[in-house]
Each structure stands twice: as structure tokens, then as C-alpha cells.
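Here we describe the complex-level prediction in full. Unlike the single-chain runs in Section 2.1, the two entities below were treated as one system.
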Amino acid sequence: MNGSNALNDLTDRLGLDSRAWLRWAVPVVLIVFLYIVPQLGGNGSFRMGEYEEVLSFLVIAVALNIAMGYGGQYILGITAVFAVGAYGAILAAKYHPHGIGLVAMCIIGGAGGAVGGLIIGLPALRVGGFYLALVSLFAALAIPTVAQQWGFVGADTGIPLYAVNGFAPEISGEELYFIVVSLVLLATLFSWALVHSRVGHRFVALHTSQQLATSIGIRSYRTQLSAILISSTMAGLAGGLYVYTQQFFAPGSSSVQFAVLLLAGMTIGGMGTITGPLIGSVIILGINQFFTSFQQYNGIVFGVLLLGFAVFLPDGLMARVTVLSARLGINAPRTRSLTSGPAGAAAGVAAVAAPSVPEPTPATAMTEKPAARLPAWPPILGASDSSPLVVKGAKRTFGGVTAVDDMDLTLTRGQIHGLIGSNGSGKTTLLNLISRFYSLDAGQIRIGSTRLDNQPAHAVARSGIARTFQSPKLMLRETALENVIPAVELRVRCTGAESILRLPRGVRTNRQAHDEALEILEALGLHHVIDQKATALPHGTRRLVEMARAIALRPSFVLLDEPAAGLSPVELEMVAEVCQNLARSGVGVLLIEHNVPMVLSIADTVTCLHQGKRLFQGTPAELRADTNVASVFLGVDEPLEASS
Amino acid sequence: MTLFLTALFAGLAVGSVYGLIALSYTVVFNSTAIFNVAQGDLMMAGVLVAYFCLDRWHLAQILTLLIIIAVVVSLSLVEERVAVRPFVKRPVVGLGWFIATLAFSLVIETVASIIYGQNPVVPIPSALGGGSVHVAGVHVANKFILAFATMIVILVALEVFYKRTWLGTAMRGVAEDREVAALRGIDALRISRLAFIIAGLVTGLAAFVVAPIVSADVTVGLTYGLKGFIALAVGGFGSLRGCVIGGLLLGVAEQMFDLYVSSNYEILAALILVLLVLAVRPSGLFGRTAVREV
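The structure predicted for the assembly as a whole is:
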């Protein structure tokens, strides 16, 4: 065993090349700092109580960041949920002072928070968007107002736990402080694990675009609800932690103003980053807690800061730091590469070379097609039913315009069906009808005996029908690889909890999703962009990444909406080859294109639409010979062949 | 029966406050696709101006009305410039505008509480005096009738404006599709400014008629702002009539809750109402479709 080799291997794994140690140094310094705060700032019991108060608030900030920063769910009135958890925990302690400790109070708080989150989230999510923000803010206003009048929860004066006979906290002083800091770090670690799990991937997909998420089978209502549920459970737990450390809860302990403070901290630090909300909240809550003489004017300072950040720096301070550290080479891309097959080998070289380059080279359009033959992608989703997809008498109107009228179409597995026609002839509408992004006015769509037209869009995707969009929909802040992974995760069975907590099956499926996504991207010749953010990719590459995402579902049918638009000749050839390969693998392909020569060269059947109606259906050879099509599109009375 | 009728009329009056705020939300949203969270605090600012003009300086009612409108419209324009226009210019992604308008609302509220200080809540005299009218056997205060009548007048005026005038149509069109509107020569920025002027007018008028009902109190902005939203959610998003019906329904529901359940927990009436409506009929009573973009 060679010692220096082993050492190199270790430093490689830890990412300890050149300046990468900075990645570790900063958090380590911060964590050490958190633990020694009492030594620096005084450790009297009053001070300790104040630290612990801020630390409990940090747990709420982490919770809010999960829902809002990653899930895109603006549960701004999270203080309502916090109050429910806190009241639950403190009431339990008041009435059972002997049997309740820190753990029990956190669990009760978490359960209370979850219930609160559900009561707000279930109805508010049916509309979504800012409705959730306002309904939850109203709850944050209502709960203290109700508590003020309610004797059971101590009314205006609240519940002082320290005055309850028999309640003696087992943990106190520095020991308690250590535990509270550790809990904050644990919550942060959990949020990191969640973000880098299949659950987090779904959150980001849905946050980016509901259509994108639906097209890869993500159930939006359920996903949004789980974001709210996770976040409210954590906020409720923070409530339990708060009452244990403060031994007190009153209507004034949670308010709308407090919710706005949390929002300010999060926005300033950087929503959707792991550490940003913590740093921002420490700044804001610190100002609020320790500069009390100035408190009357705090609202102006925070308001102006919040406004400034929302307008000029919506990603917050941490996003700046990330950009800066990427520029300094602190965040080196680290993606494992496959080394199977010729394409994989080539990619391996590229990936090994990548970390030594501080800044990723700008992506360019594909200039050279990968030499290897594409691997087979036999259907996995919906593979059990090999019947064709049949559209019968489909009709859809928008206002007074009939976009698709009395349309019949059959997609056979293993064949390419070209769909051509001028702009506005109803091609994309038809695609949207099949994928259930639109609902039918009349007619039906089915595979075998299974009706598709009465199912929601995500169910259609789950039954094996993948699609792309006319203008590619990608998660622009994610890498090409991260854009494909959620599609693989849909069909690799594993629960969200296993994936977050890295249980054995979770670890296995997380890795499998990563590897399969990589494999598909490499097969499409995209190994040079896997680590690049989608926003940096040129248009043609984005199309191919989107296609990779559709393939990653391993569908029985693929609906491609103008996949060749704006592509370079090499990329065009790639798209044609992918279509043919999919068909060879047994997938039914619907190809909407304006590039008629390409369609005619690869399609088995061609349908031509004109003003929402079917003008022609047949083989490419028959289309060339058809006089009707030629007269409509070219105004000549001879077939296409003769006129061209 | 008398108790019931008294509660009903009080509910209609308070409901008119909610309805008026909901109308201002809708005017802004219809043209900018932005929900202006600060609308409640803009009205609160108007109420405070009414307090200073009438209670402190003893100005005439009509002069007070003009000053309120001037102040509220100016504040709306400032808000449009600093918190809204940056988001009208760029494609709307996420809810950044929500945070921006919330931040503006926070600034107004803080400034107002500094100016108003720790003064106690003071009643403000109504333009129609302290008298009342006899309706169905109960006394209905003049200020209640004024608020209700003002809301109906504003509703009719807005409906006529949106349906009958070119500008009104243009203002609705911008929110539906900014690009198409631009192709027709409609400037989204001008429309956005205009929407804030109209919403400022509505809010200013509302503040004037509402001041005697809500009294001078810095915290009313947030509460009434949120209840205005609930009126909107209950009535149905985007519908002017929905705003009015939703507001009245909420106001009456609160008074009935007071009368038959408990006046201590009045705020629960609104919370329960909005959660129920969203659960049963998410688009509200008069709403066309959900707000969600597909």
C-alpha cells in the first residue's frame, strides 16, 4: 500500500486541493464561535437566556428557509405555527410538571406545529402563491389576539413556567446552551440533507416551474404541502425549545412583526442557501435584541433594508459570497463520472480535468457528435401495456377560437410520428391535451383501456408519457446533471424520508439517480456541461438537456415540441438520432417540427395539421405525393416532390 | 331582533371598510399582477391625516378630504416608484414584489407610529356629524351609511371605467399579457402608475369615510389590510363585485360571531371564514379561476 497515494486519495475525497480548505474553514470557525459565545459575551443566566432565545429563533429561520427558500412556499406567518407549538409544550409542562423534559417538549411542540401548518396549508395551498403568505400572516395576527383573551393559556400575562410548582428543568446553564447550539446545527444539517435529497430536488423543480415539475410527474399539491409540513414541524419544535429555555410564553412572544423580522433576516442573508438565513437572522435579531434603545426606529431600518435587498439583491448576501468564492476557486465542481463504455471513458477524462480549472470554461454549442452509438432506452414507466396511445375526436377551444377540432391520432410504440403544420395550426395544443396540461372539450385519449383524459397531468407523466417544451424549461440555477436527476428519481422507488436521512435504500437510490442521469447526459454528448449551471448553457444545449430529462423518465411515449428549433447542424443530427434510437428501443415518439425535411427523413407516419384540423395523415412518401398539402402550403397544384 | 338588526347594520358598515380595501387591491392587481400588501397601511396613513386635520387642526371636512387624497396618492406613487416598478419592468419571477410591498408597509407603519406617538385611540368626527337614521326600527349611524354608500359609488364607477372606457380595457389587458399589450402600444409602466393613482384615490376616499369608524390607531393598517385580503379571497379574486360582497359578508359574519358566539374571539370569525371558503371553493364566490399561472 502506497502511503502518499492513500493521502492523495483522502485529500481528493475531502476536496482539499488548492484553496478548497476555505470551504471548510469558514463554517468550522463559525461553529466554534457559536459554542464559545458565553465565554466571550458573558454567561450570566439572563444573558444565557437571551442567547438561547435567539438560537431558538434561528431554528425557525431554518424552517422558514426550507419552505420559502427551497420550496417556494411563502408561509410568512410561521410565527403562528411557532406559537401553537410553544403553547402546546408549555401547557403540557404546566399540567404535568414532573414528567416533561426538553425532549418531550420539543416533540409536543413539533406535533403542534405540524397540526397548525396543516390547518393553514391545506386550504391556502388550493390557490397557492401569495394566498398562503397572507392567510398565514393573518393566523400570526389572530393567534396572539385570541390568546390574550383565553384564560386557559394564561390570557394577557401568559404562562410563567418558572412559577409552576414542581417544574424543575434538568438541564441548565452552559450545558443547556451547548445542547441548544447543537440543535441549531442539527436543524441546519437536516436542511442541508433535505435539500440534497429527492425531496429537495422536487421542491426546487416545483419552485422553478409548476409545468416543469408536472411534466416529470411531481404532484404539486402534495409536494407543497410536505414543504409546509416539514417547515411547520420544525418551527413548532423551536417553540418547544423556546419555552424550555425561557420558561415563559405569552401572546407578545409571537407576532406579525416578529414574522417580518424573520423574513428580513432571511432575505438579507439569502433565501435558498443553507447558511444565508442563519447569518441574516443573527444580524437582524441581534440588532433587535441588543440595541433596544433604538427599537422605535428599527422598523424603518429593517423596512428599507428589506426593500433594498428585494429590489437590488434578491438573492441576498450569501449568493454574493457563493459567486465570489466560485471566482476564487473555492467551490470546485466535484461530480463523479462513470467509466463504462467509450463515451464514459471520454467523460472520465473531462471530469478529472475539470477540478483543476478554477472557472468552468464557457459552454459552447456542440461541434462534434459523440462517436459512440446511443445505448438502448427501453420503456420502464408504463412498459406493461404495449398498446398504442389513441387520440379520438379531440377538441379544444379557447374563447371563440377552435385550436384543435375532431382530431384523431395514433401513436404506436416503436414508431416516430411527425406532426407538422404552420404556426397556430394546433400542434402544441394537441401535445398539451395529450400530456393533460389542457383539458379536452370533447373526445378522448387512452392507452389500451386506460383513459388518460380524466387523469391529472402528473399522473399522465407517471404512466409513462414524457414531454419537452417549445421553449426549454430548466432549473436555471441548477447544473445540467441536477436538472436530469429528479426525472430518474420519479421512477426509482424510495421514500422521501429514506432519501433525506440517508438510510441504506436512500443512499443507494440517491446514487443510482445520479449515475443514471449522468449516463444519459454522457450518451447525448453532454459530458462537458454536467457541472455547469443551466443558465450558462447555450440554447441548443438546453434543448438537449431537456430531452435528456424526458428520456430519464424512461417513458413509453415521448412528446417532443420542436426539439430541433435553433439547433446547430450537429445538434440537429443528434436529435434525429435520439428519436430513431428511442423508437428502436420501443418508445413511441411524437415529433412536432417545422423542419420538414428532418421529419420526413425519420418519421414513420406524418400528420399535417391545418387550422386545428387534420389535413393529412400517412407515410412520408404519401405526403410527398399529396396534392392537397402542397396546394394548402405552397399554393401549387402539384405534389411536393414535383415542386421541389 | 333589534340586536340582530343593529349587528347587521354594523356588520355592513365595517364590511364596507373591508370591501373598499379589497377594491384598491383589485385595481392594482388587475393592471400589474401585483398584490400590494401596503394597501392597508396606506389607508391607515389616510386615517391619521384625518385625525390631524380634524381633531388637532380643526380643518373643514372638505379640505380634510382633499389633503387625505393628496397624501395617500403621493404615498402610492412613491411606493409604485420604489417598490413596484422594479418588478413591473422585469419578468415576474417569484414573490419579490410581495416582500418589497411588505417592506414599504413596515416603513409606513413605523413612521406613523413615531409621528402619532403613544397617543390614545381617538374617535374622529364624521363628515355627516354624529346623527343617525331610523331604519327598520333601529338607529343606524350616519357614518355607517356614508361608508356603505361610498363603497357602492366607487364600485359602480370602477365597473363603468373598466367596461366602457378604452383606458379601462387597456388597464385590464396589461395584467393579462404584458407583451401583447405592448404590441398594441400600451405602456405597462404608465399603466402601473395610473393603477396606483386610482387605487390611491379609492384608498384616500375610503380613509376619509372610514376614519370615524376605525378611529385613529396605528395598528389598524395591518389588521384591516389583512381583512381586506380575506374579503377579496371570499368574494373571488379579480372580481370587483366579489370584493364588495366578500367585504360585506366578512363584516356581517364578524358581528354575528360577536353576537351569538363570543365577542372576545371576534378575529376567529375571519380566520374560520377564509379557511372554509378556500377549502370549499378556492376561487371564491365570484372568482373566475384560481390565480395560479398555468
